[in-house]
């Protein structure tokens, strides 16, 4: 197992290299870089991409012509533009810039944000608590609810309980996360009905003045709606996955043999079936955690006004803040790869019979 983990760790390096190469190459073809963004701000034009708005053909040309702040019409001195390119490091060829970036990343030096004037690593650490709160609690709740419910549905397959719970699960899975989040706000955050939970933020304004118990209660008071909104789809998927895994295992020969030997149903279920059925559920853990931690965080953070990694990445992409884009991409990629290795280790913990080295051979 140690040799397998070592090989997986060594594969992290070329994987991250491939991710950075592809995304760095794609960025070179995207219009409106950080220099254009800065020029638009200097000229008071806001976002450089406003110049690209409008219809096609003559209508688009008229829209651009009417916009005096369009980057292509600005008459800033070439010296200022060259100074901005040097400031952002864009005066060097792309290959040289990429190699410099790799050298810095090897030392975990992700540079400084172009527009926030703060180290990328410090910026990520500043936003991390919000995303960790969403990802950790959502994944934990999804597993704590889905596994017992999925087991019960498997044991009572075809019963009325199984039928109506399946209906609820399918309905929950069909509801988009952002729509469910808005519904929660309308119902429980003072939209049109009850003012039970706060509308935005992760803590109250007077959080620093609260007692330890008050801080804990205030934190959970704020995080309840965002966690519920981000958990709903993962909850549905995991429940059905657990049920189907148990149904497959219950029908196998070794289960009938164990029952024929006189073992109790509880011993058969949790001593034999549980260990094998949980393998596929554990295999889905990285996808669930990473999905909640990254993919769903942008919409949830925006709706509930939470300042986390999702909004950070989106704002960096819009502003063409390259250090933040590539720094967060590197960190996210590294985290997802490490979580995948942890998932393999959990495989072995659940079922020591698994040997990845023999499987590779």
Automatic annotation (TrEMBL):
InterPro entries given in the database record: MetI-like, MetI-like_sf
The ABC transmembrane type-1 domain, residue ranges: 128-343
Encoding gene (name): yejB
UniProt name for this protein: Inner membrane ABC transporter permease protein YejB
Protein location: Cell inner membrane; Cell membrane
A Gene Ontology biological process term: microcin transport
A GO CC term attached to the entry: plasma membrane
Keyword Disulfide bond on entry: no
One matching Pfam family: BPD_transp_1
CDD domains noted in UniProt: TM_PBP2 (cd06261)
Keywords: Cell inner membrane, Cell membrane, Membrane, Transmembrane, Transmembrane helix, Transport
Source taxon at top rank: Bacteria
Main location per the UniProt record: membrane
Lineage, uppermost ranks: Bacteria, Pseudomonadati, Pseudomonadota, Alphaproteobacteria, Rhodobacterales
Family (UniProt): Belongs to the binding-protein-dependent transport system permease family.
UniProt key word Cytoplasm: no
PANTHER family: INNER MEMBRANE ABC TRANSPORTER, INNER MEMBRANE ABC TRANSPORTER PERMEASE PROTEIN YEJB
Entry membrane topology: Multi-pass membrane protein
Record field: transmembrane: 9-30, 130-151, 163-189, 219-242, 277-304, 324-350
Signal peptide feature range: none
